[in-house]
Amino acid sequence: MLPYEPNLGSVSNSNRDAIPLSIGSLFVNMETETFSPISQNYTDGALYIGDYLIAVGSVAGSTFTVRDGTKGIAAGACDMYDSVIEEIRIPDSVTEIGDGAFMFHSNVENVSPLKKVVFGENSNLKRIDSEAFSGCWSLTEIDFPDGLETIGQSAFEECISLSEIRIPDSVRRVGLNAFFNTAYESENMRTEMGLPNYVIQGDEFYNGNCLIKVNPDFEGHYTVREGTTAIAGGAFRGCLGVTSVTLPEDLTAIEAGLFVACAIESIELPKSVKSIGASAFENCQFLTSITIPEGVTEIGMWAFRGCDSLNSITIPEGVTEIEASAFGSCEAMKKIVLPRSLKELGWGALGSGFLTEIEFRGTVDEWFDIIVKEGYNQKTIRDVGLDYIIISEADYTIVCTDGTIAKDGTVTRK
Fold it and tell me: What phi and psi values does residue 63 have, to the nearest 5 degrees?
């Protein structure tokens, strides 16, 4: 899902270590008889392969209990459209619930029956991936187990009856729109259902030690309070009065959409940060400088798109991937410094309109060996050419340690 709102950014579901959607979807809607040669893999109408729940078919009764010993629930595992399941019981052994595992596109004529999700007292659950329970209109109750670390993007979006949520202190990552359009969000932040218009009492809204949303009317410098263990994606989204932010020293990720359309002018990221998510700083039109720590390994799609005041940036050693259009429409950008560690670039990753110099701290051959990604297609810069990754109206030069590369691809060796 790529939620889009004008001027607030288009956000990609990327950079996740999740069970692939194709695995979970492959077996959905297939009858038990189809798999008669491997019928031993079925338990109570559900297909298991090894330690993973792959698909839930026809289940007798309103309660479904995942088989004990299961380690993961595959993406798209449960077809809720023909389901009568009102309660799901997940054993202690499960560590991950995959993308869209129980997702349902409810409407007034067809509503998901799922009302309750129950975890064991000694649950080992670590991840609830993107859209895992999205659209489950009837879901009213879920008690996240202690030890949970990640709640993915849009994991409970459109769960309009979900009003009580407790985020344990073990959670370190909460994705963009994780609880968007839920009763919980509208009751606590007084946002009209379906619209990202927040009215918050005080400067911010927390759930436990997780910062969910900063008041859009806040002005000046904002310091995230001591003891904060997670900052939800989109927490500063649309904060047009926030000019600078102090982040916790142990923050590990800049979540997708965290600062979309925020008025920050400069920011220094903590050394603990490992990734910068999709659209993290998109449309931060007043951002003039940012310090990216050496621990960062990946920069997401559209991460800095539309940062019109950013005229140069240095990507530190250790970054291996910059996704599509990460620096798209950065009209003031003249120079980008790239590390030798860089291995993958997305389409238009260096898509600044008037870029004139790219300093690559590796050799010419290493530059041409960088993988260019578009979907499942992966070729090198040597195969696809420079125009695929650099979109600039100006003449530019790529400066490598042993030579230079002109816009037309001409190489001059030292």
Answer: -115, 130
- The first and second tokens of residue 102, run together, are 């129980």
Q: Cα torsion for 227, 9, 263, 212, to the nearest 10°?
A: -20
Give the H or E element holding residue 94: none
Write down the pTM of the prediction: 0.86
Residues 6+ apart with CB under 8 A from 258: 176, 231, 233, 234, 235, 236, 237, 277, 280, 281
Q: Which of 164, 158, 212, 201 minimizes the C-alpha distance to 184? A: 164
CB distance 53 to 77 below 8 Å: yes
CB neighbour list of residue 169: distance below 8 Å, 6 or more residues apart: 146, 208, 209, 229
pLDDT digits (tens, 9 = 90+) for 340-381: 999 999 999 998 778 999 999 999 999 999 999 877 678 999
Residues in the chain: 414
**254 within 8 A of 273, measured Cβ to Cβ:** yes
- The Cα-based distances of 365 to 323, 400, 403, 411 in angstroms read 21, 9, 10, 10
Query: In degrees, to the nearest 5, what angle opens at C-alpha 412 toward C-alphas 406 and 414?
Result: 135
